[in-house]
Design goal:
This protein is mainly α. It contains 8 helices and 3 strands, in the order αααααβαααββ. The chain has a 3-stranded mixed sheet with strand order 1-3-2. Helix 2 (about 20-35) runs antiparallel to helix 6 (about 100-115). The protein is globular, with a radius of gyration of 19 Å.
């Protein structure tokens, strides 16, 4: 962890303004981090928050940027975690995998680095995301070729199997750091979706 960057982001008083060239890069960094947050993306893809789930995720990007750049008080990571947590609740999802804290920490570090004019983490994340997108494109192309060689009944069978599988056993490969692994998504009786971790639940800060 970049201790200097983290300390700068959490210093007393309102944060200093980002340098002009940092604004666009920081916005990009926020988008990249949230796009790799599996709990958020799974909730959006499955529309657990309804048809407006994508709009809720897009609004989160704007809310996080505004919090960093327009706050008049000291930036505390607990406040950022609350913003992330409330968004997940609006998507009818309760995260118990520690990813809220993980994403918040990454955002704080990125902000501190941008204040210092250090954009290497964003550049690295951008490159990693591009590689993932390229691999996904290749995989999709291969799947399309397989589909062309299958009959209509096989296509219908695959469609029926893929959707429930994606809900019950979501992938967690895109969480910003490798320590947390989501292994289970359970649908509670009251309609909430609970995302849990192999390491067990992580308590929320008071």
């Amino acid at each position: 962890m970049d201790i200097t960057a983290a300390n700068m982001a959490a210093s007393d008083g309102p944060p200093p303004p980002l340098p002009g060239e940092s604004v666009a890069l920081f916005k990009e960094g926020i988008s990249l981090i949230l796009s790799r947050w599996s709990a958020l993306q799974i909730a959006v893809e499955n529309e657990w928050g309804g048809r407006g789930s994508r709009a809720i995720a897009d609004q989160l990007c704007s809310d996080v940027f505004s919090w960093f750049t327009q706050s008049k008080d000291t930036l505390y990571i607990d406040d950022l975690e609350n913003i992330l947590d409330e968004t997940m609740l609006s998507l009818n999802t309760m995260t118990e995998d520690g990813s809220v804290e993980e994403v918040a920490e990454k955002l704080m570090i990125f902000h501190g680095e941008c204040l210092e004019g250090n954009y290497q983490s964003i550049v690295d994340l951008r490159a990693s995301s591009s590689q993932m997108a390229a691999r996904s494109h290749v995989k999709q192309a291969l799947n399309d070729e397989d589909d062309d060689s299958s009959d209509e009944d096989d296509d219908m069978s695959n469609m029926m199997v893929d959707t429930p599988e994606s809900v019950s056993k979501p992938s967690s490969a895109n969480i910003p750091t490798s320590d947390t692994r989501m292994t289970e998504t359970a649908e509670a009786e009251d309609g909430w979706t609970v995302v849990s971790s192999r390491r067990g639940s992580k308590g929320k800060k008071n």
